[in-house]
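Final report, Chapter 2: Outcomes

The project's central promise was a pipeline that accepts a single protein chain and returns its three-dimensional structure in a standardized token representation, suitable for archiving and comparison. That pipeline is now operational. To close this chapter, we reproduce one record exactly as it appears in the project archive, with the input sequence first and the structure output second.
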Amino acid sequence: MLRDAIALYNDLLDDQTAVEAHAALSEQMRARRLFFGERAVCNVLRPHFYKPEQWDFLKRETEILLRAFAKAHHACLNDAELRAQLALEPYEEMLFSLEIGYEAPWNTSRLDSFYDPDAGRLKFVEYNAETPAGMGYVDETAESFLTLEVMRRFQRHYTVRSFTLVRSLLATLLDAYRQWSGKAQPERPQIAIADWQDVQTLNEHHIIRNYMERAGYRAILCDPRAMEFRDGALYVGDFRVDLIYKRVLASELIQRMGMENPIVQALRARAVCMCNAFSAKLMAKKASFALLSDEQNAYLFTAEERAAIEAHIPWTRRVSERYTGFHGQTVDLVPFIAENKTRFVLKPNDEYGGKGVTIGWEASDDEWSAALRQALQQPYVVQERVEAAFEDYPMVIDGKLHIVRRLVDADPYIYHGKTVSGGLTRLSAAALLNVTAGAGSITPTFIVEKRA
């Protein structure tokens, strides 16, 4: 039983060993630059554990849903009426028409869920298809935990397997570049990790850049404002960029630099390969969950995919004046949302980091009414409340060992738009689970099996 592994790990700690583990982990995080801005990425003393069959279930069900997302993406690219359900901006319509040169628009992505392995309950709440963060942090945090004495003692009783996310990231980027170049063995591309110079996740960009360089690739961190398209190529100073690992959000890029920025110019000239493609944002819209779960779109999917959507995608709709189905009944959507705030969350269609989210069961009546009015003026979705997952984690508070209850977010990483390998585990004491917004911690994901 997984709870036996968790109990054993927690029992290996007392006040003294917990303080020692906390000090050792803190030193590892300082040495490895494991910080969001000034805040350490991890504040607990245990990784997140899965049994092999629990991880296999998460992987299998996620990959079925990915087929549905791919079908929805393809259908939206070819059907303007269907695409309208996503409430795209005019500039997004223009960007999505740019040729990408490789198979999957999302080279890397991440589906965020609440997963209770014991109950077999898995509910996804968001698809980070545009710029999924965290892979560098997770790899380095996993290596940090493996240096701890408590982990060495735990491994006398259990085998432990972690994942190598950045290695998978680089392999996926290079495969996209190979497809884009049209050559079986292209020259090694020079890589720019493109994001604003003041983002809180800058330390993770350094981790990924350092891995790329150790693997033999020239790589730089680059603020898009430092780029220049000249002489038919994209440059940062004298550094020619062949491959962009895009971490900057498309919306912010266009808002700050306009449609004629150097990245767009280079893409139009097919002078650079960029991952992820701008069109990846189609499924990054919160309305993509509405597109999948709305009964009017069921024809897009196979019986297996519809079953996975029903099981793992919470009921979600674009907020609008309409009638729709809700678990077998027809409802007048806006009054129904207004009268049932404890059942729903309101989310802006195109935000990140928890911005603009209103949690109905935590909001006052006035706050909910104001949020609903806002949702009728701008693109929003309403999503049914899902049952969160919780686990106990050891941590040090005021020099003492405490076992604390935490919400657990299970977020598998996806490569080539179809294959799951590893994941981000986020922990929080708050219902709105976002680490960069200051609400929680990450911890690495390990597969554990009891030794014979």
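Archive annotation: The longest helix spans residues 52-78.
This record, like all others produced under the grant, will remain available to the consortium after the project formally closes.
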